[in-house]
Amino acid sequence: MDLPQLLLVGLVLLLGVVGVLVPGVPGTWLVWAGLMWWALHERATAAWTVLVAATALLLVVQVVKWLLPPRRLRGVGVTSLMAVYAGAGAVLGFVLVPVLGAVPGFVGGIYLCERRRLGTHGEAWASVRAVMRAVGTSVLVELFACLLVVGAWLGTVMAGV
HSE (CB half, 13 Å, CA atoms) of 147? Predict the structure, then answer.
């Protein structure tokens, strides 16, 4: 696969990761579709292995997401800006501390947004706890899985497959 196509696949994967944070956008499926596009063009064993593993992981995540308690977004004051902060924090955390950094980055993004909005540490932390109970678990599970898939794709591409 040539560089322009790899960049387009990377863009689709990035849109998928961002789409996980936006209600109504099928972020997980965009990640899977980008990976499928790449595997179909690569036709290498490593590419197909990544695709099969990612498919299994993303299907399990869909089941887990539906088994988690329902989200109560409006009751805790979740805004679009908060989703942007949380997503940026998760991606930054994932880059700074590969894989494991997504969790503290996600929480840190929510905290930063609430600290700017509310002003004090105590109020911001209370708000973070309420948000995490309402939305954090299901979104974080899906975001973490998509970041793992993107990381596996990036690692395979960098290895030269």
Answer: 26
